[in-house]
Design goal:
The chain has 380 residues and is α/β, with parallel strands linked by helices. 42% of the residues lie in helices and 22% in strands. The protein has 11 helices and 17 strands. It has an 8-stranded parallel β-sheet. Helix 6 packs across helix 7.
Length: 380
């Protein structure tokens, strides 16, 4: 029996390249608690419990209190029993989703390491390369917005997820600015890169890791919107009308209404010309089952930071059987947490939309562990 020998955790703060702003708040640094589990066999697993606007009570001190409370129970526990322990902890600490998820990822990785199995293999090993979109925060400062868009274009992103506030007039102006910038700059940028014969890297130089779906190959940029629960049913439909009047095409609209506004979500799903993707409404498999039964959305955004390993796998299965679209997302995480989503996305090959961009908001290396960051792509 390989047992848990040690559980350690520490706070980490990473400055962000730009202000990260949504309808729920704003931040200039990513703050998380990293968790490390060591087995008596020497196997190690690490996970991350980020902080978030959506779950404001999960502060660093609160996360630390929960981890201290359960650490003694984990010592000497067989790693083969970790999943049952996580289920128990979720019942005991229902308000601490991200805390338990960060611990679950560390335990899961220690279990895999003890067996000599990689995360990619565990999830099926479908592909070794995925491509993410990039988030455009709700920034009204023109210079700051332009700087971030310029950086994103130079990095080679083809899909842009714009954070909107719930005020249709303000939001359409922001989305129109983003749309006009992308169309104006990408057309000239594509011609320049074509002449250079390469795909742009983050510093603007050609990269050898070209994507067949790259905007620099002539495809127009894709725009997605994320409401972060800022809209009501009426303002959402007003937003859709204004987008149409301004001839702004979007691929999807993520969580426009409050997570518990089931009546509104059902209504807009019936009327919306674009897919409505549920984020905060679906945090676990029970939420997903309810969303499917009530017809609340066209798809689900899975975040391992909020749902953990077991429930994320269950949501994938339920959503696929129900014919829902699948998106994989992240919080403002370091590569410790983000890599769990990258491995799941590449390993399962199950996701229609990939939104795993948090590392691009942080100062980072071109390679983290077994993952190379090549523009908008992750290569395992």
């Amino acid at each position: 029996m390989n047992a848990i020998e040690q559980v350690r955790f520490a706070r980490v703060v990473r400055p962000m390249k730009t202000l990260f702003a949504t309808s729920l708040g704003r931040k200039s640094a990513a703050t998380s608690v990293l968790v490390k589990v060591t087995l008596d066999s020497g196997a190690v697993g690490v996970g991350e419990a980020p902080t978030s606007f959506a779950l404001k009570h999960e502060t660093v001190p609160a996360i630390a209190r929960v981890l201290r409370a359960v650490r003694g129970e984990l010592i000497d526990l067989s790693i083969e029993d970790y999943a049952g322990k996580v289920t128990e902890l979720r019942r005991r600490f229902p308000a601490f989703r991200m805390t338990v998820s960060g611990l679950e990822v560390a335990l899961f990785r220690a279990w895999l390491a003890d067996r000599g199995v990689s995360e990619l293999e565990h999830w099926g090993g479908r592909t070794r390369k995925i491509e993410t979109d990039i988030t455009i925060p709700f920034i009204r400062d023109e210079e700051m917005l332009t700087n971030w868009l310029t950086r994103a274009v130079r990095t080679g992103f083809g899909s842009y997820k714009v954070k909107v506030s719930g005020n249709p007039l303000v939001d359409v102006k922001l989305v129109r600015t983003v749309r006009d910038f992308l169309h104006g700059h990408l057309s000239g940028h594509a011609l320049k890169q074509s002449a250079l014969g390469g795909h742009p890297s983050e510093d603007g130089a050609p990269s050898a890791h070209a994507s067949k779906d790259s905007v620099t190959r002539g495809n127009p940029p894709t725009i997605r919107l994320d409401g972060n629960q800022g809209f009501r049913e009426e303002t959402y439909m007003r937003m859709i009308d204004l987008l149409d009047r301004n001839r702004i095409g979007i691929e999807l609209f993520e969580q426009p209404l409050r997570k518990d506004d089931h009546v509104g979500l059902r209504n807009i799903r019936k009327r919306s010309p674009v897919p409505v993707i549920l984020d905060e409404t679906v945090c676990d498999s029970a939420d997903c089952r309810r969303a499917i039964e009530e017809g609340l959305g066209d798809g689900v955004n899975i975040k391992i930071a909020k749902s953990g390993i077991a429930d994320s796998a269950a949501i994938i299965d339920m959503a696929e059987r129900a014919g829902l679209k699948l998106m994989i997302g992240c919080m403002t995480e370091t590569m410790v947490g983000l890599s769990a989503g990258i491995c799941m996305a590449a390993g399962t090959g199950a996701f229609d939309f990939v939104d795993l961009d948090s590392i691009h908001f942080l100062f980072h290396k071109a390679r983290e562990g077994n993952i190379t960051i090549a523009g908008p792509q992750y290569v395992l």
